[in-house]
Design a protein that fits this description.
746 residues; 8-stranded antiparallel β-sheet
Length: 746
């Protein structure tokens, strides 16, 4: 076949039948994507670059910048330089010398990061990539992990398989960015809806419900981040292989089939031969072999002189989400996945992310809502949406029963504090495990929390409940001045006010009692709490109930706005505290959760450290807000949202810290009232060493004011470091680069 250029020659790779032990009538094939000019991702590079040139995202002669340790880099080097674009590749020390030599010979500029970031090598590479993009105006970033042109590039591969074979029953592929297996299988499923799709991952990769192990030695598959291009709904089964198992399989592929390939191909070969040995007669299986073995001569194929370590000859069957250390597999049941019901959701933050997390964990999320339009990005989550009255228990239960049909319901949860009680009541009605609705009601109603803690002797402020303005005098006499006035059924800092005199208390009580509906449109409790103001720094204990134990994930140090408001303006995790003080806070939080009867899942207990020790300000039977889970993840390796979804669905949990670092956040706020003109200095702030990200959430033209509630915050800066001093220094430096510009008098 004649081609006009090397780029035109991409694809049309050989399909080879393998000689493997299998029942009679079973056919096993290898699609040799390694026969491309460099490797399988030549297809992606051609698709992404040509589409970017067509759309105008990549101007003639503009540079291309990408993070890659292997075949994507080579594909971009091939296509990009051939079409006249400077190509910059960001990689890490694991890059093999052969690939490095190829890239430089092809004319690429290669940038090698020197140390891991908070999420392994991948995050360090992305940090450096961001710096390069800032210094290269007009540069194009292919974003292989999220660019939809990545999976789209493999439609051609699927068409080649269909043309060569007629039908395919099983496709096996490695998973790194998710593009090859998902793009190929999505196209094949259009033709062959009964196709079985099997993904192959590395032990120590986060892609399929496992903790990250950045020191894993396999390359080309696995990841420390969650790529957008993985469509978990397409995959029926996943296998994990350890480094030694993958390397042994790669050598076996060369020895047995005469295919000298990389460890991605070797891993696919090991799983492919296992499936073939157990396949029914007439089954046709195909494994996708991504790259050649020349990159691995010093690793996979190195002769150390030592005997090979024993490796598993059969995989162990595990529950999806169970920790694995060697060759294991889990079936995900693409057609009959357990249902996880969500009763409403946060409108920002973790809301939509919780739905996509459920999909990643092998579940089918079903979201019950009054108004779907309230949730931006809902259509992209993969959740089924059911519209019903979520505040009517009977209507909600009926809608849930219809949605379930004869399918298994794994659990019921929510990411919205306003629907904790409703979700627990639905779980009880459906007979699935959940927190008792009474326990959540005791947390949701702040006056009930106070009464419960008082009964159990847990230290807290003095308090009084007020349902009529005439009761203010008695409440102030019982509590004292200054005091804090708050509604019993709102969330966070909404309408919480410090009051120095009776007149201010009375005015705030009248205002709150006049409210008939809360911010989610639910009937107000028409009750106000008047509480003793406890002087002392604020903290929160991030708790998790699991297996009959109450785990303290850590204590967060909180910074709040100036009185009379209580808006969180910054956090540091973990808090800088003496060990015995942190232990006392965790113990107080445990006693509080035991008092209200919380049995499972996350809790965020707010505390003040007084002269007499920690005192409970609030119990939130949910994950912390204020981006605190986003600090805990890089600091400890624990993804609390992931753990919440696991707990709700009855999946295995992992609350063991993988690392011990520090992380912090500062929120952007306006110093004066007016309209936001701009937030300047974002790129400079993002370039500060240790800063993980700078996010502006407010659009220009929005009315702003000094913070009175959380909704007044305009964005945030997150930094990560080896200790609190590094984090504080990075946050200070980043904030100094930022300017919130407000036009006043408008």
């Amino acid at each position: 076949m004649r081609h006009e250029s090397i780029v035109d020659a991409i694809g049309h790779t050989p399909l080879v039948r393998l000689r493997v032990p299998a029942p009679e009538g079973v056919e096993v094939y290898a699609k040799l994507e390694l026969a491309n000019a460099f490797a399988m991702k030549d297809r992606v590079a051609r698709q992404v670059v040509t589409e970017a040139r067509r759309s105008g995202a990549l101007k003639p002669g503009a540079p291309i910048v990408e993070s890659s340790s292997g075949t994507m880099a080579l594909g971009l080097a091939l296509v990009g330089t051939h079409l006249g674009h400077p190509v910059h590749i960001v990689t890490d020390p694991r890059i093999d010398p052969i690939t490095l030599a190829k890239l430089r010979t092809l004319g690429c500029e290669v940038h090698v990061v020197s140390a891991m970031g908070d999420q392994g090598w991948q995050s360090a590479r992305l940090d450096l990539l961001a710096e390069l993009m800032t210094g290269l105006p007009g540069a194009f970033w292919p974003q292989q992990y999220s660019n939809p042109q990545n999976p789209a590039a493999y439609r051609g591969l699927a068409e080649e398989l269909a043309a060569d074979l007629g039908t395919v029953d099983v496709v096996v592929g490695s998973v790194g960015s998710g593009g090859s297996l998902c793009g190929t299988s999505r196209a094949l499923l259009e033709r062959f809806p009964e196709l079985t799709v099997v993904g192959v991952d590395a032990v120590g990769s986060v892609l399929f419900g496992q903790p990250d192990v950045p020191t894993r030695r396999q390359s080309g598959l696995g990841n420390s981040l969650y790529p957008d291009n993985i469509d978990y709904r397409l995959i029926d089964e996943v296998h994990w292989l350890s480094d030694d198992e993958a390397f042994a399989a790669t050598r076996a592929l060369a020895r047995e089939q005469k295919i000298f390939a990389g460890n991605t191909s070797g891993s696919v070969y090991r799983v492919l031969t296992h499936l073939a040995a157990h396949a029914a007669p007439g089954t046709r299986l195909v494994g996708i072999m991504p790259d050649r073995g020349d990159r691995y001569v010093d690793t996979v194929f190195a002769d150390t002189g030592a005997p090979e370590a024993p490796v598993a000859t059969e995989p162990a069957a595990v529950r999806y989400g169970e920790l694995v250390s060697g060759w294991s597999y889990a079936r995900i049941s693409r057609r009959e996945r357990p249902l996880l019901f969500f009763v409403e959701s946060n409108t920002t933050g973790t809301g939509m992310l919780a739905l996509t997390t459920a999909v990643r964990l092998g579940l089918e999320p079903v979201l019950f809502v009054v108004d779907p339009a309230r949730y931006q990005g809902l259509a992209e989550t993969g959740a089924r949406v059911v519209v019903c009255d979520t505040d009517d228990p009977q209507a909600l239960r009926k809608a849930a029963e219809v949605a379930a049909g004869d399918r298994a319901v794994a659990g019921v949860t929510t990411t919205s504090e306003y629907y904790l009680v409703q979700s627990a009541a639905l779980a009880e009605a459906l007979g699935v495990a959940a927190n008792p609705a009474a326990a959540l009601a005791a947390c949701r109603d702040k006056s009930a929390t106070r009464r419960t803690l008082l009964e159990h002797g847990v230290r807290q402020p003095r308090f009084a409940e007020v349902r009529d303005p005439d009761g203010v005098g008695a409440a102030v006499a019982a509590v004292g001045l200054p005091c804090v006035v708050k509604p019993v059924d709102e969330s966070g800092s909404h309408e919480v006010l410090w009051c120095a005199d009776v007149a201010t208390v009375t005015e705030q009580v009248r205002k709150l009692l006049a409210v008939t509906r809360n911010v989610r449109g639910q009937a107000s409790a028409r009750t106000v709490l008047v509480e003793e103001f406890l002087d002392g720094p604020e903290f929160s204990a991030e708790m998790f109930r699991a297996d009959g134990r109450t785990h303290c994930v850590g204590v967060t140090q909180r910074t709040v706005s100036e009185l009379p408001y209580f808006v969180e303006t910054g956090h540091l995790f973990p808090a800088v505290l003496p060990e015995e003080t942190a232990a006392a806070m965790a113990d107080t939080a445990r006693r509080a959760l035991a008092a209200v009867g919380l049995e499972r899942g996350p809790a965020h207990v707010e505390l003040r450290l007084t002269a007499d020790g920690p005192a409970v300000i609030e119990i939130n039977a949910r994950l912390a807000g204020g981006m605190i889970p986003e600090l805990i993840r890089p600091a400890t390796g624990i993804d609390l949202l992931d753990q919440q979804i696991r707990a709700a669905a009855g999946l295995p949990l992992n609350l063991t810290p993988e690392r011990s670092r520090s992380a912090g956040i500062r929120f952007l706020i306006a110093a004066e009232e007016g309209r936001l003109t701009a937030v300047e200095g974002v790129e400079r702030a993002a370039a500060v060493a240790g800063v993980e990200r700078v996010t502006v959430t407010a659009a220009a033209g929005r009315a702003v004011r000094p913070v009175r509630e959380a909704y007044d915050r305009l964005g945030h800066v997150i930094a990560v470091g080896d200790g609190p001093e590094q984090v504080v220094e990075a946050l200070d430096a980043a904030i100094a680069e930022l300017a919130v510009v407000v036009a006043t008098g408008q």
